[in-house]
Design the sequence.
């Protein structure tokens, strides 16, 4: 099943890229589309941050990941590089579990 | 074509592109690691980086699978996150002027970074050079980073000991942060997080993301325009 998903999603993402280069540009230059599409990644990424920080399965939980994401927020505010943000968050979770 | 660019400009583009590509390669290390701990095989992980090649979508797919969601919820989220590349394509099509096989190849390289580098140039010839240089270097480093990250993580027995379950949300946050420079996206991000957590206990994993996407579509398409 994972294989099918990997291939279908890859094909969908490629077709979206190709569509932008190929379709008549006025189709995608509608003001509402121009306004909505950039907000999609913002909303989805924010939802993913919330879900994967505060849930386990279908339960809302508060655990070391909340502290980890707090550290990640500080790292982002300090304009740390991507990898530093991720390592800081993972290290925080790992250390708090040791205590 | 590239002949119209001075060698000085060309060196500067290559230097910038290399910097971006190396940074993204480091980021791909974490993608490979997260994908492996999410239960994807090395081959599946590499397929995502080679075929999908758009970071946020890849992270979303493996993150959803890793947190127990259905693969199809992951596919939906990855595709929705990929819609922005279509808009990049629209902006790039007038600059690149590619047809036939070159267009099929160029399409795979349409991502945040290559678009940003291309539209930052004044002359069309420079834009084209910046697009291809950034796209190809990033493709190489992204896949190299993914491979090393996935291979290294396969050797770990318990990823939780290393706090790797906290890595996906941090990765999403790092992808999200540069998009929050204005008030509207910040408000949308906050609202999306709250809506996702409110519906989470009541619907299957992955579905909160689709609900959030539906809200955004309604807001963007029918909301008051400013």
Sequence:
């Amino acid at each position: 099943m994972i294989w099918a998903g990997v291939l279908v999603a890859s094909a969908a993402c490629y077709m979206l890229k190709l569509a932008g280069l190929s379709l008549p540009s006025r189709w995608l230059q509608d003001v509402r589309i121009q306004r909505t599409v950039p907000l999609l990644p913002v909303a989805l990424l924010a939802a993913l941050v919330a879900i994967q920080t505060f849930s386990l399965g279908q339960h809302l939980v508060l655990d070391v990941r909340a502290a980890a994401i707090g550290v990640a927020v500080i790292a982002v505010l300090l304009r740390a590089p991507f990898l530093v943000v991720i390592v800081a968050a993972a290290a925080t979770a790992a250390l708090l579990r040791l205590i | 074509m590239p002949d119209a660019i001075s060698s000085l400009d060309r060196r500067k583009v290559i230097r910038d592109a290399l910097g971006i590509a190396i940074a993204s390669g480091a980021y791909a290390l974490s993608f490979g690691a997260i994908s492996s701990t999410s239960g994807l095989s090395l081959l599946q992980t590499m397929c995502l980086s080679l075929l999908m090649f758009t970071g946020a979508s890849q992270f979303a797919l493996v993150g959803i699978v890793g947190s127990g969601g259905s693969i199809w919820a992951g596919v939906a989220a990855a595709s929705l996150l990929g819609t922005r590349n279509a808009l990049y394509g629209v902006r790039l099509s007038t600059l690149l002027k590619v047809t036939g096989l070159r267009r099929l190849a160029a399409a795979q390289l349409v991502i945040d970074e290559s678009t940003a580098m291309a539209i930052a140039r004044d002359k069309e010839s420079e834009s084209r050079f910046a697009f291809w240089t950034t796209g190809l270097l990033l493709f190489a480093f992204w896949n190299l980073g993914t491979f090393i990250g996935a291979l290294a993580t396969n050797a770990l027995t318990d990823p939780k000991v290393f706090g790797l379950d906290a890595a996906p949300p941090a990765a999403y946050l790092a992808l999200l942060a540069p998009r929050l420079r204005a008030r509207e996206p910040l408000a949308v991000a906050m609202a999306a997080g709250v809506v996702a957590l409110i519906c989470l206990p009541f619907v299957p994993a992955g579905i909160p993301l689709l609900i959030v996407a539906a809200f955004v579509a309604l807001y963007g398409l029918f909301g008051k325009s400013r």
